[in-house]
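User: tokens in, sequence out, please.
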């Protein structure tokens, strides 16, 4: 087999620029040899550079059978899991921490990030290429117009760096938008200090009406006549609040709901 045909339903856009692939592989920061799982290796353009690193104990997970056959032929010693990453149990496959890396399919990138959050005690780092717009949102700081739900939820547990932009022409087939490479590294937060499920609800409810003040956007959760809304905090719009402010807000909403 000489090539794998990109499948639209899998969101495949194969990276063909070796220098970009090398930069992505080099962006993975490891203090010592570690388990690394590459998500969706396709034809292995990134894989080849990861295999060159002595500190990487590499496993790949690929859902596309045609790509699996290609990888088996070109990388006969590669540890390949033929499966959907979203359905993969990391705790069953890996005894300890596992770093993630990959050129992520745009259509499931958010689902991958939420799976990462669910497994945050086992995933210390992710280096990935995603849609530029999504990368900018995730790395945005509060006060920015691109700051949103993913920004808050991911930054609660990970430090996020926007590394570099990747143009359309380095892919086959080329996507309609630019891409970007970001790195997420687990921070020191073990617990947020609030009800985490309610935290997610508060964040999502707030940004569902991002142009409104918090006083108006949180009406679906707490009646507007509640005295907590007298605080000037609720004069702000959601993009003006950092993670700590959303934690504080969640505790206030929690107290109000218990009254």
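Assistant: Sequence out:
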């Amino acid at each position: 087999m000489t090539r794998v045909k990109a499948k639209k339903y899998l969101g495949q856009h194969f990276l063909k620029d070796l220098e970009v692939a090398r930069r992505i592989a080099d962006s993975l920061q490891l203090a010592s040899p570690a388990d690394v799982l590459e998500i969706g290796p396709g034809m292995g353009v990134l894989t080849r550079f990861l295999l060159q690193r002595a500190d990487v104990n590499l496993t790949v997970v690929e859902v596309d059978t045609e790509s699996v056959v290609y990888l088996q032929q070109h990388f006969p010693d590669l540890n390949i899991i033929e499966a959907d990453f979203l359905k993969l149990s990391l705790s069953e496959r890996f005894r300890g921490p596992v770093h993630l890396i990959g050129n992520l399919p745009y259509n499931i990138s958010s689902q991958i990030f939420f799976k990462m959050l669910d497994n945050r005690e086992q995933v210390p780092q992710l280096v990935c290429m995603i849609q530029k717009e999504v990368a900018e949102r995730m790395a945005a700081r509060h006060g920015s117009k691109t700051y949103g739900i993913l920004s808050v939820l991911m930054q609660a547990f990970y430090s996020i760096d926007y590394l570099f932009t990747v143009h359309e022409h380095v892919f086959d087939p080329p996507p309609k938008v630019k891409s970007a490479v970001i790195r997420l590294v687990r921070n020191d937060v073990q617990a947020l200090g609030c009800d985490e499920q309610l935290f997610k609800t508060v964040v999502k409810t707030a940004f569902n009406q991002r142009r409104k003040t918090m006083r108006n956007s949180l009406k679906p959760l707490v009646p507007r006549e509640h005295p907590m809304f007298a605080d000037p905090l609720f004069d702000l719009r959601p993009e003006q609040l950092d993670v700590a402010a959303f934690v504080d807000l969640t505790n206030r909403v929690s107290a109000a709901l218990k009254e």
